[in-house]
From TrEMBL:
Entry protein name: Transferase, transferring glycosyl groups
Coiled-coil zones: none
Primary subcellular site in the record, as a coarse category: nucleus
Domain JmjC: 285-445
Compartment(s) of residence: Nucleus
Species per Swiss-Prot/TrEMBL record: Solanum tuberosum
Family from the record: Belongs to the JARID1 histone demethylase family.
Biological process annotations from GO: epigenetic regulation of gene expression; gibberellin mediated signaling pathway; positive regulation of seed germination; regulation of photomorphogenesis; response to red light
Record keyword tRNA-binding present: no
Gene Ontology cellular component terms for the protein in this record: nucleus
Gene (name only): LOC102592275
Keyword field contains Metal-binding: yes
Amino acid sequence: MLASKSLLFKQQKRKRKNGKIKKSKRISVSAKEETVAEPYQIAPEEEEEEEDDEGFSLKSSAQSDSYGVQPLGNLYFNPSSHNSRNTGLGNLQTLTDELVLDILGLLEGTHLGILSTVSKGFYIFCNHEPLWRNLVLETCKGGFLFKGCWRSTFVGAYRPSFPVLSFGLKVRDFYSDYLFQSWLCANLEMKPEWLERDNIVRRKGISLDEFVMDFEEPNKPVLLEGCLENWPGLEKWNRDYLIEKCGDVKFSVGPVEMKLEDYFKYSDQVREERPLYLFDPKFAEKIPQLGKDYDVPMYFNEDLFSVLGNERPDYRWIIIGPAGSGSSFHIDPNSTSAWNAVTKGSKKWILFPPDVVPPGVHPSPDGAEVASPVSIIEWFMNFYNATKNWKKRPIECVCKAGEVIFVPNGWWHLVINLEDSIAITQNFVSRRNLVNVLEFLKKPNACTLVSGTSDRVNLHDKFKNAIEAHLPGTIDELTLKDEEKKAQQNKPSFWESVTDSNAGVFRFSF
C-alpha cells in the first residue's frame, strides 16, 4: 500500500513548453509523518499551470486505468458520494480491498470470469491484472505468449480462438486506493532527483592490489570503468544475436521458462509495476557461446566456491529486463560478494552498508524473510527522500553499458533498469570474505538462509572440507587474521586510554 502520502492528481490540458507541444500529467505529493495511509486526491481539471518540480510525472505512453478505477480521494469530489465498489460488493464491502483480492486469488480463471458478471464491483476486482498474472505463472510453467494483458494471455493459453476484449469496460464512480496503486506505480516516470545523486567511487585501470586494499578489504562498493573492453558480448549482445543463438532454448523468467523471443514480445508490451525479470543461472550451460562471450574481470578471478565443482551454489546469471524491472532491496546469498556488468542499457543502484537497514525494509530477526514495498517505484515514492538527511546516506549510481559495479558482502542493494537492459552478474567468495561465508553457512538456521543449492544442510561441511583439501591451512590463517582485526577495532583509542570514563577526568598511569 502506498503509505504516508496525500496525492493530488491533475489531468492538465495540452500546453506549450520550450517551444514544443507537450501533453503533461502531474501528481503532486506532500509527505506526512503519520504511518496511516491517507487517501489520494484527484482534482477536477484545472487551468493551465506551470509544472511543479516536487510532483511526479507520468510516462508519455501512460493511458488512464483500463477499467476507470480512481483513487479514493476522488470520492470527495463526487456530489453523490456514491462508490460503486461498495454497492457492487454487497455485504463483502466491509472487507479491505487486499482481503477481497486474497480471497479471489483462491479461484480458478473460469470462476473469476463468471464472478466478474455479478456486478460492477466484482467486474473491477475480478479483472485485476495481478490475479490473472498469478494464474498464468502458476499454470504456464513452460512459457506463454503475452497478448497485451494477463487476462487475454490466460484465455489464449487454453482457447486461442476464443475472442477476448482487448480493452476494459469503464465503470463510473469506482474508488479504491489499493487497486489504483498498481496502475500508478506502473506509469510513473523516475524523478530526475532520484537519478542525479551519484556518490559512488569510480575507478579506471587500477591494479588488483589497489582494488583489494581500497575496496575489497574495507568492504566498500566501487564502480569500475574500462573492464569490459575485450568482451565480445559488449558489442554482440543485442536482441537479434541472442534470439539467433538461443533459438528454442528456454530461460528462467520468474517461476516460468520462456524462449527469448517470447520474453522480448512480453517486455515490449507489458505495462505493470513489477515487470518479469529474466534471471537465469544456467545460461552458459544452456548456450555455451554466451559463456565464451565474456571474461571475469581480473579483480574477481579468485572464486573459492569453485573448489566444490558441480556442487557449488548458483553463482552467475544473465539478466534481461525492460525499463522498470529490477530487484527490490536484498542482500546477496550465502554472504557472498558480487560484481554486475552492464552490456546494454543502464541501471540505477542504491546500496546501504550491512549495519543500516533501508527505510521501508523489515527483515525478520533470523534474516530468513524480508518485508518491503511491493514494487521498486513504490519504495522510491515513499522512502527515497527519507535518506536525504541520514547520517549514513546510501551509495548511489547509474551503471551504464561497459561499466561494472562491485557489491561487497552484506550490503543491502536495490536495482532498477532505466531502459531495456542486459547484464551479467556473478557472486564469488575470495579470501577476504571466506571467514564470513563459513560463519554464515554454519548458522543454526542455515537451511532456511542458504540458497542456490539442493543440499542446504551440508554445504558448510562440504565447502570447509574442500577448502582444507585444496588450500591447507588457509582457513586457520584467515580466521586468526580476522580475530586480530576485530581485536584492533575494539582496542580503545589513545584518548580513551588516558581518561577515566566513569569520572570524566584524566587518569594518569606511570
